[in-house]
């Protein structure tokens, strides 16, 4: 309304049924940034102003130190041992990010290997998400893996979590 060019970031699959998505789609903007091709495609489907959309993939830059140093630093920070196989998820804890699926896959991994530790980094940030982290903790307990899952919250340095994980 003030005539100042705006750019906004679409980080989820937009839908007309979601009020914020509708409001954002109707907001004048110079450009829309999307976090994936899938999100950009969906945004193009509800974009009445045909605002240009570009994909920008957010990420975490890992330190340029050797892999062994990153692993040692991350595992020390998280209290994990060298002998563990570590799998991790770093995401906002909401259903769309798939934490229940990650925990179900983690159960299979835990059943296959005794040395597995699972790290879940992230938090439920908004009022409508209250209780979601506790529901995930209950799921881990129901799956019989609660003693092997470490919920580290949303304030942890993602590079430490990724560094601690195998394969990162």
Report the average pLDDT across residues.
86
Number of strands: 6
Sheet bearing the most strands, described?
Answer: 3 strands, parallel
Helix proportion: 25-40%
Number of helices: 6
* Neighbour order of strands in the largest sheet: 1-2-3
| Unreliable stretches | none
> Could you tell me the radius of gyration in angstroms?
19 Å
Overall geometry comes to elongated
Task: Tell me the distance between the termini.
Answer: 45 Å
Q: What structural category do the secondary elements indicate?
A: alpha/beta
Range of strand content:
15-25%
Order of helices and strands: EHEHEHEHEHEH
Give structural notes.
It is a single chain. The chain has 168 residues and is an alpha/beta fold. Helix content is 37%, strand content 17%. The protein is built from six helices and six strands; from the N terminus they run βαβαβαβαβαβα. It has helices spanning 19-26, 37-46, 67-78, 99-112, 132-142, 158-164; strands at 7-10, 31-34, 53-55, 85-90, 116-121, 149-153. The strands form two sheets. It has a three-stranded parallel β-sheet, with helices on one face. A three-stranded parallel β-sheet has the order 4-5-6, with helices on both faces. Helix 3 crosses helix 6 (158-164). The longest helix is centred in the middle third of the chain and has 14 residues, at 99-112. The chain is elongated, with a radius of gyration of 19 Å. The relative contact order is 0.15.
């Amino acid at each position: 309304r003030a005539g100042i060019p705006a750019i906004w970031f679409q980080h989820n699959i937009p839908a007309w049924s979601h009020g914020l998505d509708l409001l954002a789609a109707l907001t004048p903007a110079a450009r829309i940034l999307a976090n994936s091709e899938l999100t950009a495609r969906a945004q193009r489907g509800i974009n009445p102003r045909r605002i240009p959309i570009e994909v920008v993939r957010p990420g975490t830059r890992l330190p340029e130190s050797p892999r062994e140093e990153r692993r040692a630093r991350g595992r020390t920070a998280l209290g994990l041992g060298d002998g563990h196989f570590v799998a991790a998820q770093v995401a906002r804890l909401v259903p769309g990010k798939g934490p229940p699926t990650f925990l179900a896959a983690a159960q299979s991994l835990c059943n296959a290997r005794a040395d597995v530790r699972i790290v879940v980094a992230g938090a439920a940030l908004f009022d409508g998400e209250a209780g979601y982290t506790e529901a995930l903790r209950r799921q881990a307990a129901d799956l019989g893996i609660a003693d092997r899952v470490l919920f580290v919250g949303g304030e942890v340095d993602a590079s430490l979590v990724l560094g601690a994980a195998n394969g990162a």
